[in-house]
Amino acid sequence: MTATVPVSYALFLAILLFGIGTVGLLSRRNVIFMLLSIEVMLNAAGLAFVSAGARWAQPDGQVMFFFILAMAAAEVAVGLALVLRLYHQRETLDADAADELKG
Amino acid sequence: MLRLLWLVPALPLAGFLILMILGRSLPKRWAGVIGAGSVGLSALVTFAVAGSYVGATALPDGIFVQRLWTWWTVAGLHPEIAFRLDALSLVMILVVTGVGFLIHLYSTEFMADDEGYARFFAYMNLFVASMLVLLLASNLVLLLLGWEGVGLCSYLLIGFWYQDPDNGHAARKAFVVTRVGDVALTIGLFFLFHHLGTLDVHELMTRASAQWTVGSGLATTAALLLLGGAVGKSAQLPLQTWLPDAMAGPTPVSALIHAATMVTAGVYLIARTHVLFALSPTAMHVVAIVGTLTLLMAGIAALGQRDIKRVLAYSTISQIGYMFLALGVGAWSAAIFHFMTHAFFKALLFLGAGAIIHSLHHEHDIYKMGGLRKQLPTTFWTFVAASGALAGFPLVTAGFYSKDMILGSAFSSPMGGVWLWLGGLVGAFLTGLYIFRVVFVAFYGEPERELERTPGGLIRGPLIVLGILSIVGGFIEMPGTLGGVHILTGLLHRTLPALPEHAATGTEAWLEVAASLASLAGIGLAWVLFYGRREAVERWVARPAGATLRRFAHSGLGFDWLYDTLLVRPYVWLARINRRDVVDHVVRFIGDVCLALNPALAATQNGRVRWYAAGVVFGAVLLVGLVVF
Predict the structure, then answer these.
(1) Residue of chain A whose alpha carbon sits nearest to that of B611
(2) Phi, psi of B416, rounded to the nearest 5 degrees
(3) Cβ-nearest to A95 among B606, B610, B617
(4) Burial class (CB within 10 angstroms; exposed 0-12, middle 13-18, buried 19+) of B581
(5) What pLDDT digit, counting tens, does each position of B296-315 carry?
(6) Is this structure's pTM higher than 0.90?
(7) Which of B601, B605, B608 lies at the smallest CB-CB distance from A96?
(8) Could you give the C-alpha distances from B306 to A90, B71, B369, B553, in angstroms and in order?
């Protein structure tokens, strides 16, 4: 077997990416950047799957990544459409401006 | 003909239904015809049934039962809609339909100017139907249905002129006070069913005498509970306060419900369950003592009234006291005999009073009547006949024979005694005094005012018929010393046991003389005081002691005041301090907490996506934290 990266490194990277995504999601008000942050978080999750699949030599991890990939593509399509509608209606991309559903 | 028995209550019920549904669209004439006609037909059927019952000697135990259908079946209790005809219920339904018909006839003229003519007859018919169900019921559940039915009609008819709030108040009082007794009666029924497992009257009596010994605590409890119901319905001590106020209803109602029929339902109930009472000497003593005290108390109270109808109301309470006295000493037949004669003469007294009130612009005060002897001769003579019967005027009136039978039994029965007899004798004296006070004050002297109108044939007819009955009604039962006619007791003894022994003929004659003297003394004193020397009475009443005594008698010996102080006021006071429902605060606390938390939780729903995302993250961290650590 060739030299491998220890799985803990990969998981650590995944946690780091997920944290960066989360912070980005919570701190940015621009909807586009929030979507980008979500992409980062999704990929962090994907990384965790793939590394885990490699660790136990199972294909499941990679299969799950494909699912995530497809889901992310769909999410971006819907998300960007919503962003467009938002921009048309409010002339802004500030997520906090759309708070009609407040209790 | 016995098979027609079901028609007896069904006809008035049909009359009620027709009048209730079509009442408003029927012309008055037709409403009267249906109202009086249904009861009249019912009376005819009753006479036919009575004829065949007297002729039928082959009936087992003298009981004819007509089963219509089973009412319900629950947990071993399956009361039937079944009518039971025996000597006791036969005499009762004869009086109820007969007197009831006369009163309905009278009402067609008496109520002619009233707005609620059809409504009046609808209620009256419902009353007669309920009363007949009560009397004919073969089990106590059906009896209770009739019992509550007559209570409802009593309420509806006392408050018949509902525009006046006082009438509504009197109606509610009557309903609530009798309800106190009804609760005891209902508990009594549960008690009987629990211990004996049936509520069919015949079966119940058989099992009671088989399972309970004389004087057992269970029998006493059951009898006293039933007595509670009887006391409420029959306006005996301590639940008598509703009857004088019940006079707020139209006068025919007072005659039918609050004199002749409904108020004697208690007497009927005790006679119906006499086996149970016979098992409990204690309960019998209580019945006799309640009766004696009531007849004395009501006799005194009647002396203090100015309203003619209130005099008669107290008189009714007093006379039912006599019936209770008779029941309490085991003289069942005497009680039923007095019920019958009382129904004749007391209905007549009320109808006579109604005729006066009708002719005098609704005047109730006897001191504002005066001199009516010449103005209303028919009313005068029939009223005197009824008063004589009520006072027990010797030999020629019905009341003499029935009252004499009660007094004789009170003296000679093993359960009676000198004290009970003496109470009854004083009561007889008071009766003569208070009723002839009314006669002399209202009918003699100078006329006080012009008549508004004179009563027509439909009012005078029933008066005359009842007047004749008040005289001859007693001749069907005469003591051994006076010919010894025993038609009524001969019939009643098919159902009710006779008193074990009779007094010797010498004692019997002596008792009759004493009773006659007491009643004559009362009448004589009334003649002296209220015919001859009225000024002397006025002077005496003007003095402080006399005024106090009169007020005391006028207030019905202060029972209303007593109950007001002991029960009504504390209750109203409690209700007032509990206006904001203390118990409700416990429930309302939950709502208050929710309302207080609402603003805080609503603030979290601010509509911002990032805030929600933060919430999700926080939740996820919390969950993961819980799982990991």
Answers:
(1) A26
(2) -90, -155
(3) B610
(4) exposed
(5) 999 999 988 888 999 999 99
(6) no
(7) B608
(8) 91, 48, 11, 11
